[in-house]
Specification:
- This protein has helices at 3-11, 17-22, 33-44, 51-63, 68-83, 90-122, 132-180, 186-193, 204-218, 233-241, 246-259, 265-274, 278-302.
- Helix 4 (51-63) runs parallel beside helix 7.
- It contains 13 helices and no strands.
- The protein folds into two domains: 1-220, no CATH class; 221-301, no CATH class.
- The longest helix is centred in the middle third of the chain and has 49 residues, at 132-180.
Length: 342
């Protein structure tokens, strides 16, 4: 178990279902369906209070033995941690900040007035200020002033703390996606490597983890994934190519050759012509004809089949019933023959 996951697991209660499953992860046997469901449910829970369970569950999904169907379900849940804005919970954060600021203001104002009341009891000359209405007005005014003074510091501290907790879940999800070698996560991991994430601000630590997971996920991309990867996966992989990092660019080019769309033609052509690395230029030149052929097919499939000109006959009379030119009644159209059968 990773140090962060082990620390969070110890902080969970012994009755926590996630902790009970995590303690059985090291077993070589595959987890049962109920245990996997517990982990997936914990990962999908976007509540800020459940961040420890989410981090431990994300680590478990990458470390335990899963069946093929369970791996698909686990990978889908882990990808959601990296892209679903529910985990940021902006409205919930503002409500929690307001509640903490209000509670802190009430406590501070009450303590201040209590100290003031004790001072007045010790000085008989101040007893004239003991009217309850005055105390109530002073308490409300003190709470209002303290709230506006405290809300900004509490907002900054609360956001930084919740971002830190969320970043821990994101890091565990990134590493687990790499262990699962999920081909459908290559676009998300590529954006994480470029420090682009919808959920949290990406640090250098997450960039390194996303790089390692991306290298693992690229090996799982095969030709049958062409047309099945997310739409932005090809463009995200092309952004990775802009760094010309040979260790990462070569597997990325191979993956684009197997399952990339025609949108990668221009970036790959640029590498084939201008890259400083001979290995990158050679790999890009090999992949480029494949991508150009796909672009031709995709462009042709997008064209609509339409007539050269509109027919002169109105559309409503193109299909019409035949008229009875002979004037024969309909009941006589089909009648038995009078000839005897031979």
């Amino acid at each position: 178990m990773s140090p962060a996951a082990a620390f969070h697991c110890r902080r969970l209660g012994r009755r926590s279902p996630v902790r009970q499953v995590a303690e059985r992860v090291d077993s070589p046997a595959a987890l049962d369906a109920a245990s996997v469901e517990v982990l997936v449910s914990a990962v999908l829970d976007a509540s800020a209070r459940r961040w420890r369970e989410r981090s431990v569950a994300a680590w478990c999904l990458g470390a335990c033995v899963l069946s093929a169907e369970q791996r698909i379900t686990a990978a889908e849940a882990l990808r959601g941690v990296l892209v679903d804005r529910r985990y940021t919970d902006r409205v919930g954060r503002l409500l929690r900040v307001a509640g903490r600021a209000a509670l802190s203001s009430c406590v501070i104002t009450t303590l201040f007035l209590a100290f003031r009341f004790v001072s007045m009891r010790m000085d008989p000359t101040l007893l004239a200020y003991g009217d309850p209405a005055i105390w109530a007005v002073d308490w409300l005014a003190g709470v209002g002033i303290a709230f506006f003074v405290l809300v900004l510091p509490i907002l900054m501290f609360s956001n930084s703390r919740e971002d830190f907790n969320l970043r821990d879940s994101v890091a565990e999800a990134v590493m687990s996606l790499g262990k699962l070698a999920d081909p459908y996560a290559v676009g998300i991991l590529a954006r994480m490597h470029k420090r682009k994430c919808n959920v949290v601000r990406v640090t250098l630590n997450e960039v390194w983890e996303a790089r390692q997971s991306l290298l693992s996920a690229l090996t799982a991309v095969h030709s049958e994934h062409y047309g099945l990867l997310p739409r932005d996966a090809t463009l995200s992989l092309c952004d990775v190519l802009s760094d010309e990092d040979e260790e990462l660019a070569l597997p990325t080019l191979e993956a684009l050759g197997r399952a990339g769309t025609g949108a990668a033609v221009q970036p790959v052509r640029r590498l084939a012509e201008d890259s400083k690395s001979e290995a990158i230029r050679s790999s890009a030149a090999t992949v480029l004809p494949i991508l150009e052929e796909r672009l031709r097919i995709e462009t042709g499939a997008a064209r609509l089949l339409r007539p050269a000109d509109s027919p002169e006959v109105p559309a409503e009379v193109l299909l019409r019933p035949a008229s009875s030119a002979t004037g024969v009644p309909e009941e006589q159209l089909l009648r038995p023959s009078d000839r005897p059968e031979s």
